[in-house]
């Protein structure tokens, strides 16, 4: 009789232990799923988008929108422009988010936090962080400019990367990538400030 009672007791203890192990494993699996979900949510939350209207300058009719989106350490700029003359134009980021002057010169010079020569983006000889380059407007004066880089950020603490407080300028002419300090791109025909 004692043997039966001991065996029954042992089975009961084993079953209780197995139940606890199953519960523990289930809790660990639940914790892992919740941690993964939090990580995915954090990644989604890291996407930041800011959008601005471009305003005409220098008696032009050039308007549009420029959007900056930061995700995964990269900033994507998309500018949709209208009112341009057909052909090539330059677009740059300038020092100040100040479009108050009629000619757009209140934005200052090109944004150049690393004090390098003006040039084509990625050139070994150097380039400004604001040296986006040239784009082409169609026969109707419309253009879309897309540019992405890991050398910019939206509102971070790195002054050599942070585009907030800067201005976007569209020029009438083409950046020649050699003339200092601005590429001889001509009049500033559209402007917006990057303000968070």
Describe this structure as you would to a colleague.
The chain is an alpha+beta fold and 196 residues long. It folds into two domains: 1-45; 48-193, Immunoglobulin-like. The protein is 22% helix and 31% strand. It has one helix and eight strands. The chain has an eight-stranded antiparallel sheet with strand order 5-4-7-8-1-2-3-6, with no helix packed on it. Strand 2 and strand 3 form a beta hairpin.
- Category from helices, strands and their pairing: alpha+beta
Proportion in β-strands = 25-35%
Number of DSSP strand runs: 8
Order of helices and strands: HEEEEEEEE
| CATH T-level topology of the largest domain | Immunoglobulin-like
Q: Which strand order do you get reading across the main beta sheet?
A: 5-4-7-8-1-2-3-6
Largest sheet: 8 strands, antiparallel
Averaging pLDDT over every residue, what do you get?
A: 84
Highest-level CATH class of the largest domain: Mainly Beta
Q: How many H/I helical runs?
A: 1
State the separation between the terminal residues, measured CA to CA.
81 Å
User: CATH H-level name of the largest domain... which superfamily?
Assistant: Superoxide dismutase, copper/zinc binding domain
Oligomeric state of the chains in view: single chain
Percent in helix: 10-25%
- Under the CATH scheme, the architecture of the largest domain is Sandwich
Work out the radius of gyration: 29 Å
């Amino acid at each position: 009789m004692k043997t039966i009672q001991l065996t029954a007791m042992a089975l009961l203890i084993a079953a209780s232990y197995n139940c606890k192990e199953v519960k523990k494993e289930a809790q660990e699996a639940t914790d892992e799923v919740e941690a993964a979900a939090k990580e995915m949510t954090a990644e989604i939350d890291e996407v930041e988008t800011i959008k601005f209207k471009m305003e005409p300058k220098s008696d032009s009719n050039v308007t549009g929108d420029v959007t900056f989106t930061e995700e995964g350490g990269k900033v994507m700029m998309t500018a949709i422009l209208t009112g341009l003359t057909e052909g090539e134009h330059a677009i740059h980021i300038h020092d100040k988010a100040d479009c108050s002057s009629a000619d757009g010169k209140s934005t200052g010079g090109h944004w150049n936090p690393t004090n390098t020569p003006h040039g084509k983006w990625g050139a070994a000889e150097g380039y400004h962080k604001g040296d986006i380059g040239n784009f082409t407007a169609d026969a109707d004066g419309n253009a879309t400019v897309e540019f992405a880089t890991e050398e910019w950020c939206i509102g971070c603490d790195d002054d050599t990367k942070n585009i907030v407080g800067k201005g976007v300028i569209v020029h009438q002419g083409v950046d020649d990538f050699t003339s200092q300090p601005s590429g001889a791109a001509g009049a500033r025909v559209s402007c917006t400030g990057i303000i968070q």
